[in-house]
């Protein structure tokens, strides 16, 4: 699920870029 969400599902808030890259560069406090 997490892998799918990070690598497959487009993220509008990230301008449809790779959420995984943005995640590792700027980790939000969602965990």
Compile the SSE list and pairings.
Layout lengths: L1 H6 L11 H7 L6
Explain what this protein looks like in three dimensions.
It is a single chain. By secondary structure, the protein is mainly α. It has one domain (1-31). It contains two helices and no strands. The protein has helices at 2-7, 19-25. The model has no long low-confidence stretch (mean pLDDT 55).
Spans where pLDDT lies below 50 across 5 or more residues: none
Helix content: 40-55%
Radius of gyration: 9 Å
Q: Mean pLDDT, rounded to whole units? A: 55
Order of helices and strands: HH
Task: Let me know the largest β-sheet.
Answer: none
Question: Which band does the percent of strand residues land in?
Answer: under 5%
What structural category do the secondary elements indicate? mainly alpha
The end-to-end distance, rounded to whole angstroms, is 15 Å
Characteristics:
31 residues, mainly alpha, globular
Concise description?
This protein is mainly α and 31 residues long. It is built from 2 helices and no strands.
